[in-house]
Structures
1.
Amino acid sequence: MVGVGVTEAEVELAERLAHHVPSVEKVLLTNCGGEATFSAVRLARGVTGREKVLKFQGCYHGSHDYVLPNALTLPSAVTVDPDASAGLLPAASASVLVARYNDLDSVHALYDAYAGAIAGVIVEPILHNAATILPDPGFLEGLRELCSRNGSILIFDEVITGFRHALGGYQAIAGVTPDLTTFAKAMGNGFPIGAIGGRADLMDHFNTAKGGDVFYSGTYNGNSAAVAAALATVEVLETEPVHEHTYRLGERMRRGLEQIVADAGVPATIVGFGSIYGVIFAPGPLRTYEQVLGNDQAMFLGYKAGLLKRGILEMPAVNAMRSHISYSHTDADIDRTLEAAAEAIPEAIASAQAT
Ligand SMILES: Cc1ncc(COP(=O)(O)O)c(C=O)c1O
C-alpha cells in the first residue's frame, strides 16, 4: 500500500541517514533528485520569507523551473539564461541568481546587490555536472560563512556525491556542514528514491510536522520497494569495502588515462574523484566552468565513438559528461577500458586531423 502513512522501514532509513550525514537531523523521502531540490528551495523560501535563490553556472539540480536555468547551457555567464526551456515561468527564472563556481567574489557581488533578498544558496559540492570541478580550498567554507552571516540557507545538492563518495556525503569529507542536503541516485542503487534532510528546526517547517507551514506531499514518497532498495544499499555500504574498492579502481583508471593521453601527446585533462573519472580534451587543471567548455568536442565525441566500437559505453550526451565505476566493476574492467582508450585516443586524434 502506498500514500497512506509512514512505514517502519522509512523511519529506519531516515535514522540511517541522520546517523551518517553530518547535516541531517530530520529526513523526508522523495522519488528523485529533482523533487528533493524542489522542496529544499521551497523550504529555504518558506523559512526566510525571501525570494532569490543563488546557484552556480554549470550546476544541474533537476528539471523544475526553480533551478533549471544555467546548467550546461551557456558559453559562460553569470546572467540568468531565460531560454533554458520553452515553457519556463519567467518569474521563476527571475528568482534565480547565478554565480561562478570556485569564485567567491562573484557570490559576494550578488550578496552586495541583493542584500536581504537571498533565501538560499544551492550548490553541487563537487561540480560533477561540468565534468568534475573540485571545490578550491576555502570555497565551500566561504559559502558556509556567507550564508550564516546573511541568514540564507545553504543547500548541498549531493544527488551525485551522496553515498557514492562517502556514506556521509561529500560534506563528511570536506568538513563543511550545510543546512539542507538533497540525495538520490546512488542512494537507491538504481531504484527511484531521493531524500531531503537537514536541520530539525528547518525541516519542522514542512507540513509533515505539526504546525508546519511549507507544503510537502507525494503519493509515492517513501514507497516500500524504493525504501527497501535504499536500506539494502546503505547496509552494503556499511558492511562491505565499497568505497575502498571503487576509489582504488577510480585511481587506477585516472592514472592509466593520464599515461595514455601523455603518450598520445594530446592536450587533455583527466578529471574525477573517488569512483568518478573523465577525459576532457582541454588543458588543466580544470577549476572553472569556462575551462571545461574548452573541451574539444570533435575529440571528445570521436573518443567516445572509439570506445563504443570496442564495446565500452561512456555517455557522450553532454560535452562534459563524466563516467562512473560501480562496486561490481573489477580490475579486469579497468584493464579492458584502458586498452580500449589507448586505441581510441590516437584514432580520435587522427580523425580530428583529417577533418
Ligand atoms: C546534482 C544533481 N541534482 C539533481 C539531479 C536531478 O535528479 P533526478 O534526475 O533524479 O530528478 C541530478 C540529475 O542528474 C543531479 O545530477
2.
Amino acid sequence: MLCGKKSMIEKIGAHRFEVGLDEKVALVGVPIARCSDCGNEEVTIPRMQQFFLVLAQAVAQKPERLTPKEIGFLRKHLELSNEDLAEVIGIHVENARKWQREKNTAGMTVPAERLLRALVLGHADAKELSATAIKKSKPFHSRFRSVKNHWKTETAKAI
Ligand SMILES: [Zn+2]
C-alpha cells in the first residue's frame, strides 16, 4: 500500500480496469486489499497473461465493426508492427496506420477485418467469423469474471 501500513482488509470485488481500449473493462471476482487506515485500495489481477488472451478473443468475436483503438489493440496483441500487419493483410502500410487513427476506420474492409480477427482467434471455429463485423462500429463493452483457474466473459452490466 502507498501509505506503508500493513493493516489491510482483503475482499473479493469488482474493478474497472484500464486496458487500452475505448472504455475500461469490468472485472468481477478479483481480490481487493483495503487499507484500514487510509482507505487505499490495491487490486490484484490474477493470471494477467491469460486475462489479456481472453479479452483479445472477446474483442475479436464482437458483432460490431472494430473501432480504431480495437484494431491497434488486436495488432499489438499479435505482436505485429504496422509494417507487419500491412504485409500480413497485403495492403499498404499507410492504410494500416489510417485504420488505427481515431475517427478513421474508413477503408478497412470486412474481409481485412475478419482476417485480423481470425489471426487472434487462431484455431477457433471458422464459421464464428460470419457473426463478426456485421454491425455498426461500437466500443467493446463486456465484463470478465475471475473464477478458480480461468477467466469467464460475462454479459456487460454496470458494476
Ligand atoms: Zn493506508
